[in-house]
Amino acid sequence: xxxxxxxxxxxxxxxxxxxxxxxxxxxxxxxxxxxxxxxxxxxxxxxxxxxxxxxxxxxxxxxxxxxxxxxxxxxxxxxxxxxxxxxxxxxxxxxxxxxxxxxxxxxxxxxxxxxxxxxxxxxxxxxxxxxxxxxxxxxxxxxxxxxxxxxxxxxxxxxxxxxxxxxxxxxxxxxxxxxxxxxxxxxxxxxxxxxxxxxxxxxxxxxxxxxxxxxxxxxxxxxxxxxxxxxxxxxxxxxxxxxxxxxxxxxxxxxxxxxxxxxxxxxxxxxxxxxxxxxxxxxxxxxxxxxxxxxxxxxxxxxxxxxxxxxxxxxxxxxxxxxxxxxxxxxx
Length: 332
Hints:
Blueprint: E1 2-7, H1 11-20, E2 26-32, H2 36-46, E3 49-50, H3 54-58, E4 65-68, H4 75-85, E5 89-92, H5 99-109, E6 116-119, H6 126-137, E7 143-152, H7 166-169, H8 171-188, E8 191-198, E9 211-219, E10 224-231, E11 238-245, E12 249-253, E13 257-262, E14 265-268, H9 273-276, H10 284-299, H11 307-326, E15 330-331
Parallel strand pairs: 1-2, 1-4, 2-3, 4-5, 5-6, 7-10
Antiparallel strand pairs: 7-11, 8-9, 8-15, 9-10, 11-12, 12-13, 13-14
Helix pairs in contact: 1-10, 4-5, 5-11, 8-11
């Protein structure tokens, strides 16, 4: 039985825990949240012990996996303690909020002597698994260019919420695009440079918070990517990622599924989601992610997204943010 301790009893802490309790190999044994009422509500729902600090939870002898789901700007505090304790760690994305924090973490998580995973949940999507299969098959030919469009037209966060504060969450460039940056790195390779322009989560109290970025990145293999992402209130909502080759192109869309365009014709690629639901539990890619993490910790397997993947994605995102903040091209 794997005893799990959760740091952060908010939205993602609850989501992961509700998926985890479907597994008969784990116990949700401990929780810490800076807000006592959230820790109490969590303990009442899952039967977990309430700890009074991250240190107390992490260093408890019976806790075998640390799950960090606190706000982005708080990740570094729990990570420092958990890494020092040398316990298995799952941390929600993004890894951290600043380049300085990333610089501190790189030597700590590189060649870490225990399990370390970051919450890039889209790696567990059946559609992405099939997309990767098609790209690796060579059917697209030479990879030339692509596009990421993450448009969220129903943004509801208000001033005072950490999710509406660029200094705390990093806005769409860090929070939203971390997922697709990781997927793009996984498909294409290392980026060479990026140029971005963004609104960077306005802090004007006279208008509601909103955010938008437009960026262009070039990869070391010559691939060019156009990136568009938004937190808006009256705009279309959809998420798509397209990879174009000289023989065909493929699009991974939340609303349309997986599409292959070849010879001027676009066809939907069938994806057997049931077959890819390896652990046979309910909850989609989030549940599959948790099941995979638990299985990997218990059986000594590697994570789908570990230290290198975390570092690569954060490096790209921080480069995009630096470009947007300075108006200059950033070279990696």
